[in-house]
Amino acid sequence: MSTSSGTPESWISSFCSLLGHEYFAEVSEDFIEDDFNLTGLQTQVAMYKEALEMILDVEPEDDDDDDDEDDDDEEDASGDGRDGPRAHGERRHNRVASDLSVIESSAEMLFGLIHQRFICSRPGIQQMSEKYELGHFGVCPRTNCNQTRALPVGLSDIPGVDTVKLFCPSCLDVYVPPNSRFQTVDGAFFGRTFGALFLLTFPEYDLSRSGGESAANLGRAASADDQINGMRARNIAPGLGRGKIYAPKIYGFKVSEMARSGPRMQWLRNKPEDVGELDEARYFADEHAESDDDDESMIAGHGRPTTRRRQAGSGKLRRGQVQNGSPMAVEANGAESEL
Amino acid sequence: MDVYGSESDSDYTSYWRDWFISSRGNEYFCEIDEEYLTDRFNLTGLNTEVLYYQYALDLVTDVFDLDCDDDMREAIEKSARHLYGLVHARYVVTTRGLAKMLDKYKKADFGKCPRVMCNSHPLLPMGLSDIPNHKPVKLYCARCEDIYNPKSSRHAAIDGAYFGTSFHNILFQVYPALVPAKSAERYVPRVYGFRVHAAAALVRWQHAQRADLRRRLRRLDVESGFQDAESDPDGADEDDEDPDANALDDTALTGAAAGAATVMQMTMLRNAAAAAAAAAAHPGSVA
């Protein structure tokens, strides 16, 4: 899908096929060509226009001073700005090698930032879900997560802060990718939003499909399709809770938590026996304190109307009403138009 | 027993153990002392577990001098590796074994915790079963107290029984100073900066659990081991905790909790199962 460059492969697909770039989705050119999607990126990327041309495989134009051009082309960088250089392609001069490498790195930065926005859009998140199903992002290293497939996320939306991490939907924790080649990939190219948004966009994914033990993990009252806090009950951290917490033992005896070396972190891998307990809104409605009693078993059937009532109160009625299908589809749309 | 003077086959020269621990994929093993291997008491019961037990032992101790064909050789070699692993599980809980494994732990020979919030804390190898050929080796992180699969498939194929279920816990009983400070830092899923309700509710619940734990420990006058102040990166999460959670900062362990009171309070522990056994092994307790 290369434009006028004549190379067999577009810059985008060659970038995505580089070693270490396996997590990237191929951002569609339509997405990049829509100026709206690039709002604010001019200020974040040096040599913005050249970088954009490189991403879109447009022949670079080299006849004007860079700074002036950047200002001029802010509005029409992807409109006229793209056609212009193509027409004047033959006027291009040889760029200095160092210049090219600067543009190349700018292009990578720009592409990454566009990518961060793209994977939160509808076509982008769709593409990522295909990659997810193919297992492109690897699996959670945690033993009790049973090879749950992970999602690439960043811990910051600002480039240069941290590298890409893997978010495990089963234990809701983040891990360093096993292969060191991913330690050169900026986390901001995926962003903080994608991991959580993915789970909200595709609530029907069976995250706990590795084995029937997930069924045992469910609360008695919560049936598989019950919704709690806007997620399917069985998809709320299926890798946590009883039976999924490591209990240290010495010669078969549990190490007491009174010991200096006793367990201190089990809360991190814990979850209520009955996930219905997490329905804080219902507790509030029933005028109970949130941490009132862990053992109190609740009937999920009671929870739903209350939840809905509360959602209605907070203006989220439409979300509550969508019972089948994706309740978050609305939000996905919202996300898209936000870009 | 004279070892280094043995006249073993030329291609399988002496120092079988040197070769074994330095060969690829065996990075998790430490070298077992000669004296330990040659003390029959330490090998009690292994002769029924290992084929060609005597030959395998001879090979491990570098006194092997049997003339046999390659198939036999291969079988004995395999047995020797199995034997070494089983003795290894016993050796690493001895004083010398612990010290050797501690060195490797400090050098992070077993890898580093993949969990981001653990900041590459070194791992320890462990088994989920003490019976051989049941479960492959896993890696234990003392900071998040969870177990992880080894990155490399070479390591993932090692039998967990070669390290055992107790070793890593014994290590921290013996060297309590090495127990890393625990951190309440954790990842909170967000969408455009907003916490996701389902996950945030779980986080709040977990934080309440942690507050409970710290309250229990404070009541028992036991050091909780958490980093002094609650160090959540986003202070917003702290709002969700019980107001006194922050007051639970660790008071220094001053020992001397009255035994009777301790027993009474123990009944208050919610997970009573955890209470019994290892309290005795608790190094700081005077009870």
Automatic annotation (TrEMBL), chain A:
Query: Membrane spanning segments where?
Result: none
Locate the region Disordered. 60-95, 285-339
Question: Where is it found, in Gene Ontology cellular component terms?
Answer: cytoplasm; protein kinase CK2 complex; UTP-C complex
The yes or no answer to whether the keyword Signal is present is: no
Ranges of compositional bias, category Acidic residues = 60-78
In this chain, composition skew of type Basic and acidic residues spans 79-88
Write out the biased-composition intervals (Basic residues): 305-319
List the InterPro entries hit by this protein, alphabetically. Casein_kin_II_reg-sub_N, Casein_kinase_II_beta-like, Casein_kinase_II_reg-sub
Which keywords fit this entry according to its UniProt record? Phosphoprotein
SMART domains registered for this protein in UniProt: CK_II_beta (SM01085)
GO MF annotation: an example = protein kinase regulator activity
What Pfam families has UniProt attached to this entry? Answer: CK_II_beta (PF01214)
Q: Name one GO biological process term.
A: regulation of transcription by RNA polymerase III
Which family does the entry's similarity section mention? Belongs to the casein kinase 2 subunit beta family.
State its role: Regulatory subunit of casein kinase II/CK2. As part of the kinase complex regulates the basal catalytic activity of the alpha subunit a constitutively active serine/threonine-protein kinase that phosphorylates a large number of substrates containing acidic residues C-terminal to the phosphorylated serine or threonine.
**Subunit info?**
Tetramer of two alpha and two beta subunits. Tetramer composed of two alpha chains, one beta chain and one beta' chain.
Q: What is this protein called?
A: Casein kinase II subunit beta
Q: Which organism is it from?
A: Trichocladium antarcticum
UniProtKB/TrEMBL annotation, chain B:
Enumerate the Pfam families for this protein: CK_II_beta (PF01214)
What GO CC annotations are associated with the protein?
Answer: cytoplasm; protein kinase CK2 complex; UTP-C complex
**GO BP, one example?**
regulation of transcription by RNA polymerase III
Q: Where is this region: Disordered?
A: 224-248
Q: Where is the composition biased (Acidic residues)?
A: 229-244
SMART domains linked = CK_II_beta
GO molecular function annotation: protein kinase regulator activity
Sorted alphabetically, the keyword list is:
Phosphoprotein
**Family named by the database record:** Belongs to the casein kinase 2 subunit beta family.
- Its quaternary structure? Tetramer composed of two alpha chains, one beta chain and one beta' chain.
Q: What functional role does this protein have?
A: Regulatory subunit of casein kinase II/CK2. As part of the kinase complex regulates the basal catalytic activity of the alpha subunit a constitutively active serine/threonine-protein kinase that phosphorylates a large number of substrates containing acidic residues C-terminal to the phosphorylated serine or threonine.
Descriptive protein name:
Casein kinase II subunit beta
- Species name for this entry? Trichocladium antarcticum
